[in-house]
Amino acid sequence: MFAMASLSLQEGSSLEGFRMTWRFANFTDAIAANGEFLLRSLRNGAIVTVAALLVAYPVAYWIAFYGGRLKTVFLFVLLLPFFISFVIRTIAWSFILSDDGIVLGTLKSIGLLPDSYHVLGTTLAVVAGITYNLVPFTILPLYVSLEQIDPRLVEAAKDLYASKTQAFFKVVFPLSLPGVFAAVLLTSIPAIGDYVNAAVLGGSAPGTSMIGNVIQAEFLRNRDYPEGAALAFVLMALMVVGAVIYARLLGTERITEG
Amino acid sequence: MSAVATEPGQDRSPPAVARRPRKRWTRFVLPTYVAAFILYLCFPIFIIILFSFNQTRGGFGTSPRVKTTWLGFTTEWYGRLFELPDLTASLRHSLTIGLLSALAATILGTLLGLALARHRFRGRGSADFVIFLSISAPEIVLGAALASFFVALGLSRGLSTLFLAHTMFSIAFVTITVRARASGLDPALEAAAMDLGAGPATAFVKVTLPLLFPGIIAGFLLAFALSMDDFVISQFTQGPATMFPTWVFGSTRVGIPPHVFAFATIIFLTGAVLALVLALTQRRRV
């Protein structure tokens, strides 16, 4: 980490070696040149987090309250995909979503979709891929906090004439907020830094590359280590600041809610 | 029109009879949704296993590529598993690095976990912070930091830097599992052993270590699994050597040989069966 901080201030090229020059301009250069990618990563991260939360919450809720004795079985099934490297899982999605693959190919042959329709190489594919890869990290913290809620509290709410929806929004959801908080952090941080999905599912299509792709290219293709290190540092700093602000906001909100 | 639309008093207390049938079908909404979700989660795995049995066309046998459409059933790829030397080498790298780094991380992480659970010392807070950081920091930042570190030291990247990097990111996970186990242990047990004439070393080996063992094993397995699965950090620190995931990623540009899917299927089944057996035996013991 410190090596990265110092490297981000050096200049030179991989051929002549790098000198320490306290070149803070690396940072402004990096941000100026890659603001587009940075913004896109933040936007994609936000979409993924919201989508994963919406998809995951009902699953976590059902397993926690109605899973019964099969809870551990369900959790095991949720973790099953992890036995295959996520790179290969992402590649599998690129197969599924390919233009003549089993989903699009079938829909096209039935005539439901026009022949020119494609998903790969779009932001939709990238966001969907990241969501797929991270949704287990969203479910687990949600499940943990939902599981701790005493079902009798819901009963009590109903006894006090709360409807099912009211009982959920006034009792269950507020009590699961710590889980939501953890889930948001666990999902958004890797989502913003991801570059595998953008590379595999976005292809080299313009408008899909994220900040991670830029950092990876700077390090591994262009060998511009200072620039890459500066970008990685900016990303890290953004996330730390974001996480702290987020923790503050949510903390006070929970206090005011009682 | 508006007179029909809003009459708030009416739908607040609908008659009980009218409610029942609605309730009956909504009962199935959530379970169906969960089932659909699990299907969605496992769909890519199903596809991988299915396509590992898919025939390919063209390519003249030497460099077959997986096709996106179904061409017919074959077990050919399982017979030709070790045909690609690069792929086999990358798998061997992954296994070697996985085992060695898990071993190193287990030893270091166990010591660190024990120290953090037992003693209060200067730098404890910062050790905690570093552990938290290395778990929560995005992988790409860790990868970039490690690559910078190796560049700054002038180390050429290869298997040795891979080993260092994998050990580094696994330590934190081992530390956490061992610490959880160690903080549940009664320190009086070790004291009792020493009262019975055991030296500190004997007491540690005969009493503390066996009690910590489940935590240590869990830490080792976790470290091994993380190392096998790691892609981002490997890509940043590998240099000319390749690991299984990074080799596969590199091959996406030219097309994936079906051997990859066959290997993935085997790895998946081994992992899943092992985990299942482990879970079942542990449940029986309790």
Tell me what the structure shows.
- The complex is a heterodimer of chains A (258) and B (286).
- Chain A has 258 residues and is mainly α.
- Chain A has helices at 2-7, 25-66, 71-79, 86-96, 102-110, 123-147, 151-159, 164-175, 177-193, 196-200, 211-221, 225-256, and strands spanning 10-13, 17-20.
- Chain A is globular and about 65 Å long.
- Chain A has a single domain (2-256), classed as MetI-like (MetI-like fold, Orthogonal Bundle), CATH 1.10.3720.
- Helix content of chain A is 73%, strand content 3%.
- The termini of chain B are far apart.
- Chain B has two domains: 25-84 and 258-286, no CATH class; 86-256, MetI-like (MetI-like fold, Orthogonal Bundle).
- Chain B is globular, with a radius of gyration of 27 Å.
- Chain B has 286 residues and is mostly helical.
- Chain B has helices at residues 2-5, 8-12, 16-26, 29-51, 76-79, 85-118, 124-136, 139-153, 159-183, 187-195, 200-229, 232-237, 244-251, 258-285.
- Chains A and B meet through helix 1, helix 2, helix 3, helix 4 and helix 6 of A and helix 4, helix 8, helix 11, helix 12 and helix 13 of B.
